[in-house]
Amino acid sequence: MSQLSPVLKQATPVVAMRGEGLHLYDADGRRYLDFTSGVGVTSTGHCHPKVVEAVREQAGRLLHGQYTTVLHDQLLTLTERLGDFLPPGLDSLFYATAGTEAVEAALRLARHATGRQNVIVFEGSFHGRTMGAASLTTAGTRFRAGIGPLVPGVAVAPFPAAFRLGLSQEEAVAHALHGLDEVLATVSAPAETAAVFVEPVLGEGGYVPAPAGFLAGLRERADRHGILLVLDEVQTGFGRTGRFWAHQHEPEVVPDVLITAKGLASGFPLSAIAAPTELMKRAWPGSQGGTYGGNPVACAAALATLDVLREERLVENAAEQGARLLDGLRAVAAGAPGIGDVRGLGLMAASEFCRPDGSPDQDTARRVQQAAADLGLLLLTCGIHLNVVRMIPALVVTAAQIDEALALWSKAVAAGARPEEAA
Ligand SMILES: Cc1ncc(COP(=O)(O)O)c(C=O)c1O
């Protein structure tokens, strides 16, 4: 008799038997409103009929077509179709399975393409759990402690997390860019710096959107020093923030390398990295690849996902419902002294729990998240102190479902409040 390893930390006790749209169902038929979307993956909702049909059709035709042995039609079609959505100039793509693998690939590419070794990341960033990606991750020591030595050559600059820094958005941007300049002057010389890796919205690090001007400041410095700007849009991409890519909220910023995964294939393991062909050519041929990259069934799911995003106007819906969600979260926070900040972009929204002295309140965040699960609303925590509760519903979410989630959220916040703050 074996059991699941205790190294997996479960956010809820739910055993899902079936999923449909925004809902998961357990063995007793209990329905849960899923505002986790499998950590931002099921962008078109659980088991969207068009995605399921595409997967069924492809599964009967070709399950695996190893992409450095043979090419297959889904891979070629997806590559062509993604071209309609990629930032200008990023005309070359290849695929892996998980987000973390794509981050590893981008790290290898950055080092090959520049001949430089160092990489700069930002406080609170999350890029994955494999050793290279974990070395770029500073969203909490829980992702790094005890597994070292990590990959060397990583320097950390401040992220403009205004609330945590106690600064205005403008001050936070100035502080973070100054910090980056200091890192370039003191730790990682520009001539030794291959790339800057950044999430346009900190994900696991607490759902902190980069304020206006930050990405442009990074672009300017990257250009000035010949450093590559690598945008990790694993969690923020594919419409989640109300633009196809989150960095398009700052339209003049174009990355050198873009990493995507999660929402790309509605639940199938598929990640991709995009860059200009000229840059990709500087990597050593054969230096990238993998057994499962660009799996035909996952590519079919990605193509169906693109169709659904367009046909159902899901990027626009993410912007619209995201605004409704954020307004509702702010209204709940107005009556809840334990919530110190509400923030988000599109359908990435979060509430940060603080004690009366302003310190992070992980216990309340956890109680509220558990209370929500008891009430039938599935949520996740995040943040470097795990004191942030995030909402990431599928992009097919309706206004009625947002309102239902907010009603449950309000009850959960009351149920999980610190005793002295309970009404
Ligand atoms: C921004 C970001 N990058 C990379 C990853 C790693 O992706 P995966 O879990 O698919 O390896 C994640 C996962 O949460 C993420 O949010």
Please describe what this structure looks like.
This protein is of the alpha/beta class and 423 residues long. It has two domains: 16-47 and 313-421, Aspartate Aminotransferase, domain 1, CATH 3.90.1150; 51-311, Type I PLP-dependent aspartate aminotransferase-like (Major domain) (Aspartate Aminotransferase, domain 2, 3-Layer(aba) Sandwich), CATH 3.40.640. It contains 13 helices and 17 strands. It has helices at residues 37-40, 49-59, 73-82, 99-114, 131-135, 162-165, 169-186, 214-225, 277-280, 296-311, 314-334, 362-375, 399-416, and strands at 16-20, 23-26, 31-34, 92-96, 118-122, 154-157, 193-198, 201-202, 208-209, 228-232, 257-260, 271-275, 339-345, 348-353, 377-378, 380-382, 388-391. The strands form four sheets. The protein has a seven-stranded mixed beta sheet with strand order 4-12-11-10-7-5-6, sandwiched between helices. A four-stranded mixed beta sheet has the order 1-2-3-15. It is globular. Bound molecules: pyridoxal-5'-phosphate. Pyridoxal-5'-phosphate binds next to helix 4. Keywords: Aminotransferase, Pyridoxal phosphate, Transferase.
List the helices and strands and how they pair.
Blueprint: E1 16-20, E2 23-26, E3 31-34, H1 37-40, H2 49-59, H3 73-82, E4 92-96, H4 99-114, E5 118-122, H5 131-135, E6 154-157, H6 162-165, H7 169-186, E7 193-198, E8 201-202, E9 208-209, H8 214-225, E10 228-232, E11 257-260, E12 271-275, H9 277-280, H10 296-311, H11 314-334, E13 339-345, E14 348-353, H12 362-375, E15 377-378, E16 380-382, E17 388-391, H13 399-416
Parallel strand pairs: 3-15, 5-6, 5-7, 7-10, 10-11
Antiparallel strand pairs: 1-2, 2-3, 4-12, 8-9, 11-12, 13-14, 14-17, 16-17
Helix pairs in contact: 2-10, 3-10, 7-8, 11-13, 12-13
The site of pyridoxal-5'-phosphate has 15 residues, from helix 4.
